[in-house]
Amino acid sequence: xxxxxxxxxxxxxxxxxxxxxxxxxxxxxxxxxxxxxxxxxxxxxxxxxxxxxxxxxxxxxxxxxxxxxxxxxxxxxxxxxxxxxxxxxxxxxxxxxxxxxxxxxxxxxxxxxxx
Length: 115
Hints:
The chain has strands spanning 3-7, 10-13, 18-25, 31-39, 46-51, 57-59, 67-72, 77-82, 91-99, 102-105, 109-114. It is mainly beta.
């Protein structure tokens, strides 16, 4: 059974920073792309950032220059460093990983940015 476990969410003031982590565990041969998505109340889930196994990244326009995605392949872990947070970044953040060509999702972690 493959699991993705997220951590690092919380409440922060506008302009602050948070770092999210997501560790994949279980019977995994290979992890391809890993990423972060978010869903705000009343909105659809959207891509925030993703990173390939080779380290190529792409970001949503709304977070470029503020968020940085990285991964540690030895630990099957992906990170999201979020700086200069804005109230509109408030959402549940979900980790996603393509493990052995099967998409997996974490349970989500709440990020709340107060103005």
